[in-house]
Design brief:
It is built from 6 helices and 3 strands; from the N terminus they run E-E-H-H-H-E-H-H-H. By secondary structure, it is mainly α. Helix 1 runs antiparallel to helix 3, helix 1 packs across helix 4 and helix 4 packs antiparallel against helix 6. It is globular.
Length: 129
Amino acid sequence: MRKAIFATATSDGFLLRLTEAQKDLISEVLLFQADRPGGYRTSVVRLGVDRESASQVMRKVSDSNPEFSLHEIHVLFAALSSTPIMIPSEEAFYERIGSFRENSFALAAGLLNAAEAASDKGGNLSVND
């Protein structure tokens, strides 16, 4: 799971090349977030978007080389970062998600690093772009 994430800056965000294991982990944390009780407000607090928007991001994850807007990258980062906090037991996390908590944190960090590297090479992108 410690494989690097490769990102290419595009005019609207980033084109990501994810391994199948990375896609599986992202899908599972997004599914976990979708199953949480609460409505619009709690989803926005956890992920920055409502459930429908999070579902759209989840559908993109299965693409061969998905392109994500900066806002969608934030949804991925938030899901990967918050899910291990919401499931504090390593055993419970592994049983529900199918991966170790450290892999979720590492993938979140990898997204951030890939975004920084792609931005440096492809122009300075900001959240307002």
